[in-house]
Amino acid sequence: MTTPAPASTSTIDLVARFPGVVQADARPGYSGFIVEKDSLVEVATAIRDEFGFDLMTAVTGVDYAPDKMEVVYHAYRTTGGPGLVFKVQVPRVDPVEVPSLIHLWPGVDLQEREAWDLLGIKFNGHPDLRRILMWEGFEGHPLRKDWKEGFYEEDTKPFKSRWPDGQFYMAEDKNPFKDNLTFPQNFDPEKWIPEGDALLYGALARYTVKSEEGISTDRIVINMGPHHPSTHGVFRAVMTLDGETIVGLKPVLGYLHRNHDKIGERNTYLQNMPFTDRLDYFNSMTNNFGYALAVEKLMKIPVAERAEYIRVIVSELSRIQNHLIFIGTTLNDLGAMYTPSLYTFEERELILDVFEAISGARMMCNYFRFGGVVRDIEEAEMNKIKDLVYERIPPKTDELDRMLSENEVLVSRMKGIRMINAEDAIAYSVTGPVLRAAGVPYDIRRADPYGIYDRFDFDVAVRYNGDLMDNYLIRIDEIRQSLRILDQAIKQIPQGPINSQKPQYQVRVPAGEAYGRVESPKGELGYYVVSNGKPNPWRYHVRPASFVNVTSLEKICVGTKIADFVVLLAMFDMVMGECDR
Amino acid sequence: MYGKGILKGLGVTAKRFWETYTEDLAWLLRGKKRYYTEEGVRHRSSKDQKGIFTVQYPEERLILPEEARYLPFLVYNELADGKREILCTSCGICAKVCPPQCIWIVRSNDPTTGRPIPEPTEFFIDADICMNCGYCAEYCPFDAIKMDHDFEIASYGRNVYNMEQLLKSSEYYKSIRPQNYAREEAARKAEEEAKKAKAAAKAAAEAAAKAAPPPAESPAASAADTQVNS
Q1: Strand pairing class (A236-242; A245-252)
Q2: Residue A56 forms beta bridges with which residues?
Q3: Which residues of A312-340 are buried (b: 16+ CB within 10 A; e: fewer)?
Q4: Which of A274, A359, A405 sits opposite B131 (nearest CB)?
Q5: Chain B residues with CB-CB distance to A350 below 8 A
Q6: Which A residues 11-70 touch B at CB under 8 Å?
Q7: What pLDDT, on the 0 to 100 scale, is given for residue A480?
């Protein structure tokens, strides 16, 4: 049995360094520090420069209705170790204002915009504080506790109308189309011209046009997406072009937004598990893992030993199939239509066959439970996994490598196209393979091990050029490292129970907060869960890898050619289900 | 040499291409059918697959593992007189645990006694809302709701299933999930045996107590007796 690691931020004494303005968070179940609003920038500067927490991973808000709101920051060191949580509390009167930290960590850009959009927390000093996930003209801030959605039924599930006298109705009959939204006063959707677009193009227009050598050139604005095949979903990038060179870029998100966080607050703890499958729908196993970690931390329960190994096995299989898809679709984006992607999909299908046999579904696995997993891996399935790990995937990975990695067309297309360098990647909170390809060996499995990853011998895959070629090659490296972990896990897995808890449909979660994070194949996937002891979480926040990584897109793309944009975007391996939530 | 990498890559694709035909030939020589047979499909989704990988749906189908889950159904037992014994007791756990809240159960009361009737009066599942998570089947204490294997339910309208559409026999359940069924049956049998043994032990003890005249007629002694027996 392994117990969840205790919150170990006690080594850093912020209170002694800033007496009077910083207090330890003494609420039961909470950890970290509460910083006075006026000294936030000063304290955050010290946290970054003196204490070395250079990676600001998660910024989010919590609505402690009715009296206060809180902004929560999770900072980590790229050299590894536990993180530092600090919070700012402000009274809940409009406008809720907090100083922005964008000048210290540019990576908080989109996350602060999200907190403004969904919670109505104003970040003073943010240069472009627009809505990001909701549409411009939307009224209210959906994650506030007093906001109710169009199909609102009750604050929390289970709804009372379902049992014992469950008179069935269709949601759309109860709340027909056009009457399920509240618009601002005097707002007519037919006549409305999105003012946000004016703001968006205005933000791009600050690049001045200068004509060189007497030749006047026009700059054009191009909308890439939301329906562009290379954006892997409904992602839109508004770009200003000078000739072929990108001189300005703004990502536009939210086309797939379904307010996962709000759904999560209505759900019970257990009900959230299948919803996490739908975030990054390629990796439901790692999504489950992060959420299970967060809730297990809150519940302070151990995980059954065999389940720990099963978790590692399914996570690493998930990583392999994700990277295979990545290689296939990226090559598609590069113009190598379908051959590589169909080859990689074969191995993925075999891995999904295993997932289906053990969890019941190929993609929406819903496999993890608090304290373990739902079903054991039987002998037959374990043999299948062994076949894949020892006989099938290694030669197929080599074959893929042989087919693509030395191809002169591919190499000349990808080598030397700069993606991002190490300093910028850290500043922009980039995580995952993109960060490691830039030369920062930061992998949560090694830097801040969760589960039983500290027992395995593996190398953190790292490449140093940060160009497209390295971003492609690092995926193959990671597949090989995952195979190493799988080999050890398969050999070491003990017999025994698969859950330390009795199966129960209503779990008791004591009050407190927890941040569970995993190294998902796309980067850091974190879940920030706040419990008040009731059956439903008070706050449930997902820190998705895709969403935060895309913060750096402007930095990466400005100065490159538009033809490279497609590949640069592909290297993030974005999944809009996770990005927009 | 420039172009070596391309040639290497082309070698991989050429090998793939020819392997389809060499495999076909090998199957032919062994006198087995590679296509449109279960054996062929099974081989094509195993580690030994070479060449073509495609399964020609709907003529060929992938073999679903037992745990595959899609949409819940209600299980009933076929009784000897042709009547159906619905296992559901309308306890409401599935409706409470359902993440998208797509289960509606009507439980009614006996008009004479006023106590709830176990069998549900109505049972609705909005299949368009169902997310196939399998919680209802997982947490049902009576093995009354199970996940189906039938995934071909495309339609033009809304799919709201009432109890009549949801009910499927335990024979069907046994056919799609033999291992689970066997496990549950064994558990049920063991429980019944235990109950029977307990009842028999109790009856025997009572008979023994009746046969032998009690030494003292005090209520405390008989209470102690029953405690020992139970």
Answers
A1: antiparallel
A2: A75
A3: bbbbbbbbbbbbbbbbbbbbbbbebeebb
A4: A274
A5: 45, 47
A6: none
A7: 92
- The interface pTM score, or ipTM, of the predicted complex is 0.82
A163·B92 Cβ contact <8 A = yes
* Predicted local confidence at residue A184, as pLDDT: 66
Q: How many residues in chain B? A: 230
Give tens-digit pLDDT for A263-290: 999 999 999 999 999 998 899 999 999 9
Round to whole Å and give the CA distance between A136 and A132.
Answer: 8
Half-sphere exposure of A466 (CA within 13 A, CB side): 16
pLDDT digits (tens, 9 = 90+) for B72-94: 999 988 888 888 888 888 888 99
Query: How far apart are the C-alpha atoms of B38 and B33, rounded to whole Å?
Result: 9
Tell me: pLDDT of B170 over 70: yes
Interface test with A, best of B63, B135, B161, B176 (most A CBs within 10 A): B135
**Single-letter code of the amino acid located at A170:** M
Count of positions (residues) in chain A = 581
Residue-wise pLDDT for A140-169, tens only, equals 888 988 888 777 788 888 888 888 888 887
Q: Phi/psi of residue A22, each to 5°?
A: -120, 135
pTM of the model as a whole:
0.86
Residue B22 one-letter amino acid:
T
**Number of other CB atoms surrounding residue B145 within 10 Å:** 24
Residues 6 or more apart in contact with residue A357 via CB below 8 angstroms: A380, A381, A384, B65, B66, B67
**Closest partner CB to B9 (pick from A353, A357, A404):** A404
Please say whether the beta carbons of A484 and A387 come within 8 A. no
Cross-chain residue pair A163–B124, CB shorter than 8 Å: no
CA–CA distance, A512 with A28 (Å, rounded to integer): 6
Rounded distance, CA A393 to CA A479, Å? Answer: 9
User: How far is Cα B90 from Cα B145, in angstroms, rounded to an integer?
Assistant: 11
What percentage of chain A reaches a pLDDT higher than 70? 91
Contact A358/B at CB under 8 A: yes
- Closest partner residue to B133 (CB to CB) among A274, A346, A404 is A274
Taking contacts as CB-CB distances below 8 angstroms, the residues of chain A near B96 are 158, 162-163, 505-506
Judge contact between A31 and A298, C-beta under 8 A.
no
CA distance A437 to A421: 9
CA dist., res. A462 & res. A442, Å (int): 9
Four-point Cα dihedral A282, A286, A290, A291, nearest 10: 60
**A350 CA: distance to closest CA in chain B (Å):** 7
